[in-house]
Fold:
Amino acid sequence: MDGAKWERFDHVIIAAHSDQALSMLEDPTPQEREILNAIPYQPNRTTMHTDVSVLPENKKAWASWNCLIPKQAGGRATLTYSMNRLQGLDALEQFCVSLNMDERLNAQRIIKSMDYEHPVYTKATAKAQQRWGEISGKGRTHFCGAYWGYGFHEDGAKSGLAVCRTFGLEL
Ligand SMILES: Cc1cc2nc3c(=O)[nH]c(=O)nc-3n(C[C@H](O)[C@H](O)[C@H](O)COP(=O)(O)OP(=O)(O)OC[C@H]3O[C@@H](n4cnc5c(N)ncnc54)[C@H](O)[C@@H]3O)c2cc1C
Structure:
């Protein structure tokens, strides 16, 4: 890295996504490769907007998380967060955040689109998550992140705590 200074540390804690963590390792072990690869991430287009047409028709059914499951077979399920509900916003407009829905949205009502990644869960993922102890702390490299759980904030915190415990630390 340009301008970076090499420093030595006794341990490394990698608090990034599984694929990012793997790409940071110069010489990953077969276990690190196998386990981290089994918990993949997928990109999701994430858009903030005020187009309420993607929320349920009946306003009484508006929830913090609103899933839209297309009627046609094979259609991709999408999700819209009601930010006003989630964050208790007292706003005149209804602010929404939708995943992978840009083509359905009224372009005039889009505020900003960004690309984020979320973990993708399969049976292999569940097995790989149980093998955390096989790689974390081995070779003085520790792994944490929401991908060790269900992908929520709490899972990130929980996995960070698990790493702390290997150093004998508790909150
Ligand atoms: C649109 C959206 C909505 C969400 N809503 C909710 C919600 O309502 N409730 C909830 O609980 N969770 C929600 N989540 C999930 C939550 O944001 C994640 O679970 C949490 O942020 C993941 O934490 P993490 O520490 O695993 O990863 P991140 O927060 O992604 O942190 C990984 C860090 O690694 C850094 N990094 C990557 N590569 C490198 C590198 N080479 N060198 C150094 N650093 C690097 C990144 O910059 C980043 O800061 C949402 C996520 C998204 C995208």
Remarks:
- The longest helix spans residues 153-166.
- The CA atoms of residues 15 and 144 lie 5 Å apart.
- Strands lie at 12-14, 41-49, 65-68, 78-82, 96-99, 110-119, 141-143.
